[in-house]
Amino acid sequence: MVPLLARTRRMMAPESTGRITVPATSTGTLASSMLTSSQSLLELTRWLMETYRLDTDQIIRRYDVTGKECPRFFVQNPDAWENFLAELAEKS
Prior knowledge:
The chain has 92 residues and is mainly alpha-helical. It has one domain (4-91). Helix content is 49%, strand content 11%. It contains four helices and four strands, in the order ββββαααα. The longest helix is centred in the middle third of the chain and has 21 residues, at 31-51. 11% of the residues are buried.
């Protein structure tokens, strides 16, 4: 299993002045890597949503801001991204 790596430091995103981002990165670009870490990603994102009182419309990918293909799995598989957001909405 490939663990989800999450940086716990908050950093200012130059692309989104005034917004605080928390980067979460899967260690690999293969679909299997993302699928094995998806539960961890869901749990981390739910925790962030609860802690910072966020809605699913505030959960974005780097791609949405910069156009960089990141996270590659979700950019190359838009249905997987929509399913991820739907899972967050179901349990938040």
